Amino acid sequence: MSNIHSSGLKSRSSFLARLLTLPIRHVQQAVGSLGNLWRTPFTTVMTIFVLGISLALPATLHLFVKNAQQVSEQWDSASQITLFLKLSTSEKSAQNLVQRVSLYNEVADVRYISAKQALKEFKVLSGFGQSLEYLDENPLPATLLVTPTQRASQAEAANALLAKLSKEREVEQGKLDLEWLTRLEAMARLIEDIVLGVALLLCLSVVLIVGNTIRLAILNEKDAIAIMKLVGATDSFIQRPFLYSGIWYGIFGGILSCIAVTLLAWYLGYAISDLTELYQSNFQLEGLSIREALMLISFAIVLALTGSYISVRQHIKAIEPNAD
């Protein structure tokens, strides 16, 4: 009975010892794989640069899509509805309409332009001031410029508000020019689809590049792997250094891509700021956030680890020690 108890304690203690030494072995193999990369600097640097550039392109496209969406949101909030009043509408009726429209929950601001003011502005802007003096009566109607709220400034909501305002008895015609906004949204969706397609292709190239690099490393260590299998090393023990090599490739490649995107955004930011100053705008190009940078590095690690895992599973199992 005591022998069974002592054997149980030994097996339990040996299991705990293996469990405690497992993280140490992983750390040793991770550091050893980093040393293997250091011993082949040219191949390592070239692979990291290829990974960084491959991931920097879709990240840069994502950056421009993100900034374009911010600009389009600003334009959405600045959309206006123009209401042309009937020529027979009196000044008092027009002011009553202004008060009614301002009470709409979807309306943020209402600006009234009288017929006289509209004719005066048209004389200045058109350049036909003297010719318009020969008109018997003012052909221009009074106008209301209605600014929707942020929620009502979207295309569908703005159209619904236009239909609602057009039912007012003083309104002859309402106009909301959403054609340019619809085109902008269509272009934004097209760019997003292009970014997604390019990102998928480049992600596939990252997996293939890392897989091929790990394959060459395995072939270079073919004899050593065969000897390790002869002395009883398991496939998982042999695979770990190569998997950690893939992780290191992903870490360095992701960091390089973040640096490249940040430098590109910083360089283009000055040119864009100079351009926006000409249009009296304070738009600033927004770069990668810390969250986006961490996501990019994590994504690079996943892709590189996937490529190394596929290569390791395929090639290490194929290496068998000679019977001799």
Structure characteristics:
cell cycle; transmembrane; four-stranded antiparallel sheet; rod-shaped; 4 strands; Alpha-Beta Plaits; transmembrane helix; ABC3_permease_C; 324 residues; alpha+beta; 10 helices; single chain
Low-confidence segments: 1-6
- Main sheet record: 4 strands, antiparallel
| Radius of gyration (Å) | 34 Å
SSE order, as H and E? HHEHEHHEHEHHHH
The coarse overall form would be rod-shaped
Q: Helicity, in percent?
A: over 70%
Question: What's the helix count?
Answer: 10
Number of domains: 2
Mean pLDDT: 78
Give, in spatial order, the strands making up the sheet with the most strands.
2-3-1-4
Explain what the structure shows.
The protein has 324 residues and is α+β, with helices and mostly antiparallel strands. The chain has 2 domains: 22-74 and 183-315, no CATH class; 80-176, 2-Layer Sandwich (Alpha-Beta Plaits), CATH 3.30.70. Helix content is 73%, strand content 7%. The chain has 10 helices and 4 strands, in the order ααβαβααβαβαααα. The chain has helices at 2-39, 41-77, 91-102, 115-126, 129-132, 155-165, 179-220, 222-230, 235-278, 290-315, and strands spanning 81-85, 107-113, 143-148, 171-175. The chain has a 4-stranded antiparallel beta sheet. Helix 9 (235-278) runs antiparallel to helix 10. The longest helix has 44 residues, at 235-278. It is rod-shaped. Mean pLDDT is 78; it is low at 1-6. The chain crosses the membrane at residues 45-65, 194-218, 247-272, 293-312. It comes from Colwellia ponticola. Keywords: Cell cycle, Cell division, Cell inner membrane, Cell membrane, Membrane, Transmembrane, Transmembrane helix. Belongs to the ABC-4 integral membrane protein family. FtsX subfamily.
